[in-house]
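for ur thesis appendix - DUF3040 domain-containing protein. copy paste whatever u need, i formatted it the way the template wanted (i think)
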Amino acid sequence: MPLSEEELRLLEQMERALVEEDPKFASTLRGTSLRRSARRRAIAAGVVFVLGIALLMGGVMIANHKVGFTIGIAGFVVMLASATVALTSMRSQHTAAAPPPGSDDPRLHHPSRGGFQVIDGGRTSRLRRPRRGGRGSAGTFMERMEERWRRRREQGGF
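the 3d part is after this line
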């Protein structure tokens, strides 16, 4: 059932108010402008990285060792800085494109279809798998070590 004209008008007013009040949050909800700017930064960093390689190679080829060494170091620093910028922009692009946690994105449940599976980690929620030796899981590593220590003390081994 489509929205009525009154509902559409109210929705547009709310959207304009959100953009005026918090433009960064609104662009995050849209997701397009943040991804686009992150992609631009990553591409520019890639171009600057190639220029850094050219500086490094040019420094190696220069006959004057002091000048060549300085140019080579400058090329390496340019490469390092551009790689850092590229990685941070790619991370921000990935987080801007990712759905919020807890959403029902089907890609989260199908890792074979290009998404990642969400795994709840931590010590308390660790899944225990049976060991391959035929016996079932006897607990965590520390619990098994404590059990061995207790058995040794009871048997008089220590």
